[in-house]
Design brief:
Number of strands: 5
Strand order of the largest sheet: 2-1-5
Strand content: 5-15%
Number of domains: 1
Distance between the termini: 25 Å
Number of helices: 6
Helix content: 55-70%
Shape: elongated
């Protein structure tokens, strides 16, 4: 007996590909924060700075404060990637458990729905619009990854030390994360084109 075509199974299957890329990107960014990004080395002395600890001192009202810009930039990129992973179930309201998990793990996704519906009650979060937002969030994530790596490189270039200042190979993790985000974007766009063609066939 031939199997019946299931549109919902198709969307779930193709969604897993970009979700994998997004999750791998999050892993790379987590390692980028955990591993040393640059350090200083002298005679009988070596100090490496992990990604989360790369900050900049700014003075405010005669007080010095350290702002961990790399942590802020990288966590923002991770946040956009996480929202991307959990945005898709918002269009599948029949999947109640996953929908609730989405609301709990990424509360901002629920707030997006609330704000849009509050100011525009007729606005509908269609699958097409969700995928458009996913593609946009990929670029937002890439932007903050570039900002994070740019800040690390800035600190590396401006570090004053009598010995050697070392930029570690772990910085390549940001390049890998950007590539994964671009792949996720490409597959999300392919999904959009595929599902549009399926809609035309069903019509």
């Amino acid at each position: 007996m031939p199997r019946k075509f299931s549109f919902s199974k198709l969307t779930t299957m193709i969604q897993r590909i970009q979700t994998l890329f997004l999750l791998l990107s999050i892993v790379c960014l987590g390692l980028f924060l955990w591993l040393p990004e640059f350090g200083v080395e002298g005679t009988n002395y070596k100090d490496m700075v992990p990604g989360w600890n790369v900050g900049h001192t700014l003075h405010f009202q005669d007080e010095a404060y350290i702002y961990f810009f790399n942590l802020i930039f990288t966590c923002t990129a991770i946040w956009f990637a996480l929202v991307n992973v959990f945005l898709f179930p918002l269009t599948e309201k029949s999947n109640g458990i996953l929908y609730i998990i989405t609301r709990l793990l990424v509360p901002i996704a629920g707030w997006i729905l609330f704000v849009f519906r509050l100011f525009n009650p007729e606005y509908e979060f269609s699958s097409s619009r969700i995928r458009s937002q996913q593609m946009l969030f990929c670029w937002f994530s890439i932007l903050f990854i570039v900002c994070a790596e740019g800040f690390v490189y800035f600190k590396y270039q401006t570090k004053i030390f009598l010995g050697d200042v070392i930029l570690t190979p772990w910085n390549i993790l940001t390049i890998v994360a950007v590539v994964l985000q671009i792949l996720a974007f490409i597959y999300i766009r392919k999904d959009e084109e595929l599902l549009k063609s399926v809609d035309r066939l069903r019509d």
